[in-house]
Amino acid sequence: VLIALFGGFAGIIETSRKDKGTVISGVAIATALMPPLCTVGYGISRWNWEYAFGALYLFLINSIFIALATFAMVKYFRFPIANNDETHKRLPKHIMTLILVAVIVPSIISAVSVVKENNFITHSERVVNENKNLGKCFIYDHKATYSRKSPTLDLYLAGEALTTEAKELFYKEAEAYGIMRDQIAFHEDATNVREDA
């Protein structure tokens, strides 16, 4: 959205100058519009409709915000209206607002979800790295899986069996990072390994 907005601003500023050019407008199109269109093509070629529709949605967002930035700058510069004929009726403001809300709200929800996923994975990495050894047991591998309903942190342990005290200590450390105990799963298949094995 920010790339599209600044691309729209730069494009209309370049167009409004006396020595008009197309370089900035071309860069705006190349950075905001071409990558999602290429991804749409890739998604179609792979029959991956999630990729295709997600990229098409991003293309629509960028197109709308380039147009919005251009419209705002045209109003700011007070460009003269070329055709004020009644046959060219403008789209009512409430319909434009509905279109903007319909485009912006899902993107905000998606952005919040991405931030939450990134935070969960980052915090999982930190708490595991800071607590590799749990008494005579150690974490040899882990897997952080994010979902909106129930993100999980799977811990794979080796060595001696995990004690209740060590488990509670790990829960306490994880809760400091916002990871609740019901999100943590201990896998102790490799514990209680005999020394002569």
3D structure, described in words:
- It is a single chain.
- By secondary structure, the chain is an alpha+beta fold.
- The chain is built from six helices and four strands, in the order αααααβββαβ.
- It has helices spanning 2-16, 23-32, 34-45, 49-77, 93-130, 164-176; strands spanning 133-134, 137-145, 152-159, 184-191.
- Strands 1-2-3-4 form a four-stranded mixed sheet.
- Strand 2 and strand 3 (152-159) form a beta hairpin.
- Helix 4 (49-77) crosses helix 5.
- The radius of gyration is 27 Å and the shape is elongated.
Would you summarize the structure shown here?
This protein is α+β, with helices and mostly antiparallel strands.
Query: Sheet with the most strands?
Result: 4 strands, mixed
Q: Which value, in Å, is the CA radius of gyration?
A: 27 Å
**Which structural class do you get from the secondary structure elements?**
alpha+beta
pLDDT < 50 stretches? 193-197
Mean pLDDT: 82
Q: How do the helices and strands line up, and which of them pair or pack?
A:
Elements: H1 2-16, H2 23-32, H3 34-45, H4 49-77, H5 93-130, E1 133-134, E2 137-145, E3 152-159, H6 164-176, E4 184-191
Parallel strand pairs: 3-4
Antiparallel strand pairs: 1-2, 2-3
Helix pairs in contact: 1-2, 1-4, 3-4, 4-5
